[in-house]
TrEMBL record:
Residue ranges with Basic and acidic residues bias: 34-45, 178-190
Highest taxon, organism lineage: Eukaryota
Name of the protein in question: Metallo-beta-lactamase domain-containing protein
Pfam family, any one: Lactamase_B_3
Protein species of origin: Cercospora kikuchii
Family annotation (InterPro entries): RibonucZ/Hydroxyglut_hydro, UPF0173_UPF0282_UlaG_hydrolase
Membrane-spanning parts: none
PANTHER family named in the record: METALLO-BETA-LACTAMASE DOMAIN-CONTAINING PROTEIN, UPF0173 METAL-DEPENDENT HYDROLASE MJ1163-RELATED
Disordered, as annotated region: 1-45, 178-202
Amino acid sequence: MTTAKHSIQLDPSKPKAPTRDDADFPPSISVGAKDTKTHPSKAGDENASIYFIGTATTVIEWEGSRILTDPNFLHAGDHVHLGPGVQGTRRTNPAIDLHELPHVDLILLSHYHADHFDQKVEQSLRRDLPIVTTPHAKECLTEKKSEEERFTQVYDLDHFESAILDIKQKKKNDDHFDSAVLNEPDKTSASEEGTSIDNKKKENNLHPSIQITGMPGKHVPPGPLSIANDILSAVPPTNGWMLELGHKTTTSFHSGYKIYISGDTLLVPELSTIAETYKDQNIDLMLLHLGGTTIPSPGVPLLMVTMDAKQGVKLMELIKPDVTIPIHYDDYDVFLSPLEDFRKEVEKEGLGGKVVYLDRAEEYKFRVGGGGERE
């Protein structure tokens, strides 16, 4: 089993408000999904979901736990600071407001940028809410803040470093987890077939876990601009993520579903290492950050810092996920590559059956199985 840099305990049985004012919070997303979508050809028996709030903000739910990605809850007309002399204006409203969130177990933050972690979020979040993010963002959320304002549970991951989230479960739910593992065929190894899941669980303490691994990503293209940005720190470093939802024993991790989140990146050579690392493993889902974000402004589009439609399709062809869901589109005026452009590119390349489109307040449901053992 891969050695994790961090081991984080999640306990959904003790819910808290995600904000620090201790306001009442709903048991689930109160607005509810206006539409639910599933795998284009293999729907059925779903036990996990992704709810799209807007921009790169989603809620991933499985086994009672909730992960909130890149929280941005600004409204249409609100402004964000994106770098020296660079500002963006939001065009859309989030599906729900920050104070309408249910209990959240962890925040997954791709980078410290105001359109991913806005000023209202930063002021309002509970200071002991666990956050997994980049080393740069950790420094911004801890060392660069006053003692009373700093976040106290921030875990940094660099590229290809991992954290394990152990999800605490009530004993009455044990049979559910056993059947989930027992009924799912092994994706990577036939050697597990015929093994008694009941015995394995008893001997090795099988329980639901999520492995998060930092993936490469770059906001700025390689070359002189990248060197200048390293000196000026105008655009922050960013991560993508590989989320593996599965089950852990004392000796191994069984991956039941893999989600690759691209993060805010361009199609840079470093992304090929992702395809190489996971070449013998199925990527079930990709959350693809699009938008073609261009700075310093829509009127002066000098530098693109996130993938546009063409790059997004090329990343699909590189990673080869089973399903792709585009996010991070059409929400800010600096997003100059609309979702419609991506649709056209997808159809042109004959990939329409591999994409699920979510509007804000829609959800995608999927199944996490027992998976195959990964040493």
